[in-house]
Amino acid sequence: MRSCSLLLLLGALLLSSALLEAAAQKDNLIKVDVKTGRRSPPPRGVRRSPPRAVRTPPAASPPVASPSPSPSPSPSPSLSPSPAAKPSPAPSPAAKSPSPAPAPVPVPSSPAANTTSPRPSPSPSPSPSPAAKPSPSPSPAAAPSPSPAPRPSPRPTTAPRAIRAMSVSTGGRFTCVWADGEVKCFGQNDYGQLGLGDTEFRGNQPGQLGQVLPVVDLGAGANVTQLSTGTSYSCALVKTSNSTTPVIKCWGGNSGGQLGLGDAVNRGDAPGTMGDALPAVDLGTGLTPLYVGAGGLHTCALLRQAATGLNVVKCWGVNYAGQLGLEDMDTRGDQPGQMGDNLPVVNLGSGLNVTQLSVGGEHSCAIVTDSAGKAHVKCWGSAEMGQVGYGDTTYRGDVNGTMGDNLPYVDLGTGLTPTRLVTGQYATCAFLEPASGAAAAGPPVVKCWGSADGGQLGTGDEERRGDGPDEMGDNLPALDLGSGLVPLDLALGLGHGCAVLANTSAPAASQRLVKCWGLNDYGELGLGDEVSRGSAPGQMGDDLPPVDLGAGLAAAAVSTNSYYSCAVLRPAAPASPVLKCWGENAAGQLGYGDENARGDEPGEMGAALPPVPITF
């Protein structure tokens, strides 16, 4: 009898296992290593559909009538269409971490704005289906949060002020906006990535933005000069009244030490963890931070080295793919004694000066100049999709002998000089200008390599570039976004990209426009449908329509992440810049007070898409 019972139990277990495996295959789940957080990419041509995750729903906030500037009214049925809630995508893989962006958008004829621009970065964060909210569940890897001091009270609600300059940074399913030295964040908040001392979502219910949304408290006298968002955390370059030089502060999820605080404790998810209680990242003596980039689960900083006068790079967080560039796979920043002077500088080669840094999901890239002043690109970390651009799938930075002078320059073609890098989860793009004296001098071009799933490379196919021989250099085509258009800004997400383009031959009101291409499962391209662009011939160039963001608004900057996009827009008349977002919205990351996607159906863009009611 006992044997029979055991056989029945074994049969039930086998059947259950088979059913689970079949369900996983049906949903094309991405495999996740619970120890490292690494997500294995899908095979070529297979769309990513990450598994759903349980989120902690926010407590209902009473609607508050907050004044908003005239260009940014609070959403209401008359201003914002409310399409039927569509099924939420599952959490996206680690987000992209963008490179330093152009200067924040100034208002015409307004006082001089802060010229140091914050810039977005990359990824997955647990989030629910808009249609059904699961019951609360504890945050994974939730360790006791330190509470050295009570959290300062939020600033009293006051009338909004005019904004001189603005930039936006999109995270996994949350968005942070920088304006004149201050930061506000909304969307998903499981790990405290909004920096508000709790885990309540903001932006998915009415009355949560505007003056009601607190400024992120980064300490007394804090002035944020640059911002980057990652998977489920954020980092900022901050000047405070307590320091004579800028410091880096990071908050949110910290399972891999990506906050750089010598532990794996989240910050920003409980009272007493922000403000002056949030420590600055210790990067060592004689180093001044110039830029910070948040990636999937790793962070890198560009630093000025006092001893040499050169710029160098330090990275911390998870390191399963060598993304820290330290020729091993050891995590840094999650234990005491790993940061400060104990954290090595990334060896990019002798005599090289780093002029620009961009941090991706599982890789990083830098522009370096040699002793002759010539600029080159070097990348390290994961190469599974060819994103480091060396014509193979061999990781760099994970074992001895792969960094320093052994790390080659990325071949981007003859007569071209790299001026800017942009990294996504599995792809990389470079802005290139004809070298001085080149015969075919002309406007800058953009070349992209890595994953082409959904057409993210914009090459009219889904063939990866950079993972095989003879794909780089002069064989790598330039991104075609249309005749007479010059790229000014660009962002890469999980499977799509967006660019701000200048059309100097157009009327002044339409000289700055946005085009998006790649995957479009949730309207992230902003074209009123769910049709991907860039994966077949005849979809790019002049055939790719611009995103309709409304009349009288000129695009100034763009940021993308897993399944959504945002753009900073400048009104024709002197007024504060405005923000518009579209795509997937399961956590309120679009900031419209609901969980409805925008841009996936006709009639949702243009004048029907209101400005996000973000005020300061």
> If helices are DSSP runs of H or I spanning 4 or more residues, what is the number of helices?
1
Enumerate the strands of the largest sheet in spatial order, edge to edge or round the barrel. 1-2-3-4
Structural class of the helices, strands and pairings?
mainly beta
What is the strand tally? 22
Q: For the report, how would you describe the main beta sheet?
A: 4 strands, antiparallel
What is the radius of gyration? Answer: 23 Å
- Globular, elongated, flat, extended or rod-shaped: what is the shape? globular
Q: Indicate the mean pLDDT.
A: 81
The low-confidence parts are: 1-103, 105-156
Strand content is: 15-25%
Distance between the termini: 72 Å
Question: What is the succession of H and E elements?
Answer: HEEEEEEEEEEEEEEEEEEEEEE
Residues in helices, as a percent range? under 10%
